[in-house]
Design brief:
about 45% helix; single chain; Rossmann fold; alpha/beta; about 10% strand; 5-stranded parallel sheet
Length: about 250
């Protein structure tokens, strides 16, 4: 194993340890997620922009994951339709509002939405949280305070208001993204490599899901969890959840 690989591994472990330091806040936010699931209401998850979409995909129809997760996977920001296109759309003010409408988000006060974006500054992020608050939703943000604070206020990736996601949500879960995302230096190479943002986002949201399952058990509510469809009996174990939630979760069918 070479020095760069060891450094990358160690850096990721350090980030995860920092995220674990936020466990009390994660536990507090898990309460509102668990209460939503206990009411049999879907929990909305959106990764507004580029690779942040992977955090929403991570908790959709996932082995050991909760069934009533409404992953908002907008084609406009999905990289499969063009990486630069995604970057341009996530910076477009007002775009998020119609995405929320298309996914029927916030039709009832008290719905929960988890907004995952390690940078937490783009127009789609900020418009999502501001609109969710107008719709009287409960907002949970997975993002990095240190990155948002360090980024210049006039950077073109920012929302016109200059707001930061971590300051606007009801529950802020710090994913501790390092400034610049990539962390590994290669001798003679100008740009660092070894990105970290997906690890930051996915580790944090999976901790939230774990704490939600624990909270449901404390509430004496059996958590509606998926079994791996690749295990013997997986299809049979999942069938009742599929029948219940496919009509209600856009990307589940």
């Amino acid at each position: 194993m070479n020095a760069e690989a060891i450094f990358y591994r160690n850096t990721l472990v350090e980030i995860m340890d920092k995220i674990l330091g936020e466990i009390e806040t994660i536990q507090k936010s898990s309460r509102v997620v668990a209460e939503s699931i206990a009411r049999e209401e879907p929990v909305h998850v959106i990764g507004p922009g580029g690779h942040s979409n992977m955090a929403a995909e991570e908790v959709l129809w996932r082995a050991g994951g909760l069934a009533p997760i409404n992953a908002i996977l907008d084609p406009g920001t999905n990289l499969i339709h063009g990486a630069k296109r995604s970057n341009l759309i996530e910076r477009t003010p007002g775009y998020a509002l119609k995405v929320l409408d298309a996914y029927r988000v916030g039709r009832k006060p008290g719905e929960v939405i988890i907004i995952v974006n390690a940078y937490g500054v783009n127009a789609m992020c900020i418009d999502t949280v501001l609109e969710a608050k107008k719709r009287k939703m409960i907002t949970i943000g997975i993002t990095s305070r240190s990155f948002a604070d360090a980024l210049p206020k006039d950077h073109p990736s920012r929302h016109p208001s200059g707001k930061n996601l971590y300051q606007e949500v009801d529950y802020f879960l710090n994913c501790h993204l390092p400034y610049g995302d990539a962390v590994v230096e290669i001798k003679g190479c100008i740009q660092k490599t070894g990105p970290t943002s997906t690890f930051c986002n996915v580790f944090t949201i999976n901790l939230l899901m774990i704490e939600t399952v624990k909270r449901l058990m404390e509430m004496r509510v059996q958590p509606p969890l998926w079994m791996s469809a690749n295990l013997p009996g997986g299809d049979e174990a999942n069938r009742s959840l599929e029948e219940k939630y496919i009509p209600r979760i856009k990307h589940l069918g």
